[in-house]
Design a protein that fits this description.
Elements (H helix, E strand, L loop, with lengths): L2 H20 L15 E4 L2 E4 H4 E7 L2 E6 L5 H10 L6 E3 L4 E4 L5 H38 L5 H34 L2
Antiparallel strand pairs: 1-2, 3-4, 4-6, 5-6
Helix pairs in contact: 1-4, 1-5, 4-5
Length: 182
Amino acid sequence: MKLADVEDHMHKAVEATQRSFNTIRTGRANPSLLDRVVVEYYGAPTPLKSLANISVPDASTIAIQPFDRSSLNLVEKAIQLSDLGLTPNNDGSVIRLNIPPLTSDRRKELVKQAAKFAEEGKVSIRNIRRDAVDSVRKQEKSGEVSEDEARDLQDKIQKLTDKYAAKIDGLLTEKEKDITTV
């Protein structure tokens, strides 16, 4: 495994963690809150953003206008079943989600959820490191790289691991600040 591949995989793990953070609400309306909502559309699970136009008319409202009006009730049901804790208001053509201000208890829960996402990201980075180090050890055993080169590669892999774990910590700190800011 090449160092560039290792770094690329770790970068993707950080991006995935960032996408997970985007699904946590911070008291402001944000269309990415709905990224994890999946609608059962004609028997197939379909992401909400593929079925509707999602907009933010003001800081506390998300408007969802399905491309196919017949899917309005399906979209409403999917939002109710999701873990967002939001009640959709259906006016026949548009679904509106009012984002209430967060209570302090809810903020604490969201901070815990963000920490869980960050830990999942770090675990995936550590798994990438483990796979890369195993690969280097195999190369060393087969004689493709010398013992010194193997040690040097393992040090570089560890530095990449530390760098990307620190990025996730930075993202977590930023998200916690967003969540706890009233």
